[in-house]
Amino acid sequence: MNQAFQPFTPQARTLMGPGPSDVHPRVLKALGQTTIGHLDPQFVQLMDHVKTGLQYALKTQNPLTMAISAPGSAGMEACFVNLIEPGDKVIVCQNGVFGGRMRENVLRCGGQAIMIEDPWGQPTDIQKVADALQQHPDAKALAFVHAETSTGVRNDAKALCALAKQFDCLTIVDAVTSLGGIELAVDDWQIDALYSGTQKCLSCVPGLSPVTFSQAAIDTIKQRKHPVQSWFLDMDLVMGYWGEGAKRAYHHTAPVNSIYALHESLCILHEEGLENAWQRHQTLHNALKQGLEGLGLSLLVDEQYRLPQLNSVVIPDGVDDALVRSRLLNEFNLEIGAGLGALAGKIWRIGLMGYACRQDNIDYCLDALGKVLNR
Amino acid sequence: MNQAFQPFTPQARTLMGPGPSDVHPRVLKALGQTTIGHLDPQFVQLMDHVKTGLQYALKTQNPLTMAISAPGSAGMEACFVNLIEPGDKVIVCQNGVFGGRMRENVLRCGGQAIMIEDPWGQPTDIQKVADALQQHPDAKALAFVHAETSTGVRNDAKALCALAKQFDCLTIVDAVTSLGGIELAVDDWQIDALYSGTQKCLSCVPGLSPVTFSQAAIDTIKQRKHPVQSWFLDMDLVMGYWGEGAKRAYHHTAPVNSIYALHESLCILHEEGLENAWQRHQTLHNALKQGLEGLGLSLLVDEQYRLPQLNSVVIPDGVDDALVRSRLLNEFNLEIGAGLGALAGKIWRIGLMGYACRQDNIDYCLDALGKVLNR
């Protein structure tokens, strides 16, 4: 019993796994500031600033842009429970863990999921999606993952959305790992509903999920025949809380300090410039790749659709996956990620996200890997 | 645009509203510590410690005791979506805002809500509940709010649970404002599902919802005929993440830093002693009450079922509610709460919760109120 009530002081780590990634020191400082009320005029104004910051990061003018008060999985659920009603058909692309989770969400909304499956490590095949849209003209939405954190693959969000729009289909996009790390343009690409996370390329603490909804998405929500099955995630109610000006109907108590942190991370992104941040991820990915090749290691995913911020490294034959990761953690305080599902034991996932995406981190990681692998 | 990207430094407030309440400085310090991975062995151990701490605070041995990674409204939803299936009948007691929210949850689960309504400011009438249980022997659960934050009323949780058990009914209890402030004994009272919040008498930041489920509740979940409508709140999946030892199946990314904060707040509660904390709330409530009476102000709720941690003060005739609150905030940096719903404009809600429940806060509040009211 007593051990449970000892003060907890975490041993610092270098976070180069699939997330959370290293949190910027300025973000931690903002996080620990004095808590104010969630209806305090100061906080209401901060919510407006966070909205502006998210609109900047997402390249959108959508008024319905905000942070859900819960992690990315809840953001995913917010998109599905608001847009999908019983009987609705959704085309879901799966080429990793998170497409499967989208399917689960469709089913739990009483919807029908038309699955487009591609091998893990490969991108979604656009032709297969075109065929499915042709075959299911009544599909309400196309759902896919922009940056598949479980494999390191970039799906072609721009092309997938353009295709969906030809068929008058709503688009639901998982941008948990893409936001802030690679090009993403909600309005230009005509994304209707998008959710992300704070603990990846925004260098913020985990626990919030930025979301945005287009006018078409809002119209769809307003025309629902059934109430949204989640009270907590009902955007019609959440809108009243995050909405314009004086309205601010009490819905739930926002995680005030986490919003401080998100705001600071958006300030940092704005200072660097969104396009510069994308470029930094690409440039440093190239540096990491060269270093890994120097150690005789190769990447799983083809360059053409490889994510710079999530590097799937093929584990060489005869190397003990778990032992390497545990030595990196225990001897170097360095966290890298394991493979998931079909890729468990076959890859490591090295994240280069946000503040963790720095040359000194790359040098440190390559040095540690070299020592542990005796290369 | 540019204003949105200016650093945010909150003006400190004294938080004596309905929550969030003043956060303990040690909790803020814990919150701002370096972020580690949510699967890091250090963090996995911390989750165990938080579970132990919550078991202590809730007086329960329930193994399924944890913090939902979202605010109290999500904790409420977690209780309902896991236990209630389409067609289930739930007796819901309403004598304030939060009973109404429970009803919403029942309906969104496809259940039927049998409402027991009592006036705001009065406790739930036990006889009416007994009659309803008699009349609806097929009711699956009795749901009620222990401490009604919107009115300052304590419902008799012990008696309500004992009654429900006579009719073999599950009990679902809202303990958002009661946990840490007044007597609460999950096992002794035979509570089956309970949710709380961190931003009230635990003096922690908002954003997490402690929950606990009895064995009977777990059995009910395991015997469900329909999948839980929420993926994020599906306890069967969440159990795998918060469960014993090595399992720890990846479900979502826990809000790591908020868990640091919750742990520290549980350490502080344990240092003081749970019963001592209850006593402090009662003693200081008496001090506040005396002071308010000295200013000619009276409390809405009868002493017999009045909450010490949430004091509903009747606004005297001719006093401008909004002006008083805004002067307290702007001139004294003191936040007190407005009335909600039927009590809007009729009461102020003065919170004495957790770290905010101190003699110096009471003195400060009485002094400020006296000045603003010219008394």
From TrEMBL, chains A, B:
What's a Pfam family in this record? Answer: Aminotran_5
Q: What keywords is this UniProt entry annotated with?
A: Aminotransferase, Pyridoxal phosphate, Transferase
Region feature (Disordered): 1-20
Per the entry, which co-factors are needed?
A: pyridoxal 5'-phosphate
What is an example of a GO molecular function annotated in this UniProt entry?
A: transaminase activity
Chain ranges of the Aminotransferase class V domain:
32-351
Polar residues: which segments have biased composition?
A: 1-12
Record family assignment: Belongs to the class-V pyridoxal-phosphate-dependent aminotransferase family.
Kindly provide the name given to this protein in its UniProt entry: Alanine--glyoxylate aminotransferase family protein
| Organism of provenance | Fluctibacter halophilus
